[in-house]
Recover the amino acids of this structure.
């Protein structure tokens, strides 16, 4: 009987060891996939923001050519960016040198208000961080911070890419929530 118990314990230890190995491999795979997806999403921000820069520059050129007044050119640029946000569910933001928020889908209630002192849950002054990255490009325009994820006010980790349009003093950019990345990976892994 003691040999039977000993065999049971050995089988349980083997099963427990295999379970831990499976959990370890699954966790490693998840983290590997997660890092790759985060890198892909982060890199995808740049071309979209370069497109927004081209759009803004186009309206600036129409102003220089005399087709539009400065106010018309700026408003039409903001209107088009707002449409892009609505159609594609993007997180494009625009604010100026005075930290007046001109466009933000996530923070629509703050539009046309000063956001210079807005902070995340860690006390980081968000728009000052985004401004510094856009103007001085210390991290190539990328910023990491926490931001409101949904209407209930919870803050989630976000990575943004921002650029600066000097003629108008505009900072514009877009971000991706890490929670969105995790949800898409989990969905991908559980659907197979």
């Amino acid at each position: 009987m003691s040999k039977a118990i000993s065999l049971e314990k050995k089988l349980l230890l083997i099963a427990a060891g295999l379970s831990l190995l499976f959990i370890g491999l699954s966790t490693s795979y998840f983290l590997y996939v997660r890092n790759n997806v985060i890198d892909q999403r982060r890199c995808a921000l740049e071309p979209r923001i370069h497109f927004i820069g081209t759009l803004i520059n186009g309206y600036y050129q129409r102003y220089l050519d005399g087709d539009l007044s400065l106010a018309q050119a700026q408003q039409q640029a903001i209107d088009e960016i707002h449409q892009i946000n609505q159609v594609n569910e993007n997180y494009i933001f625009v604010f100026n040198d005075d930290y007046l928020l001109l466009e933000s889908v996530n923070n629509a209630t703050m539009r046309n208000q000063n956001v210079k002192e807005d902070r995340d849950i860690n006390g980081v002054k968000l728009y000052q961080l985004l401004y510094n990255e856009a103007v001085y490009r210390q991290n190539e325009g990328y910023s990491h911070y926490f931001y409101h994820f949904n209407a209930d006010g919870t803050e989630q980790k976000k990575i943004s890419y921002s650029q600066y349009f000097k003629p108008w003093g505009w900072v514009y950019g877009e971000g991706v929530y890490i929670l969105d990345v995790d949800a898409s990976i989990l969905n991908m892994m559980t659907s197979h």
About this structure: The chain has a mean pLDDT of 85. The domain at 23-49+89-191 is CATH 3.30.450.20 (Beta-Lactamase).
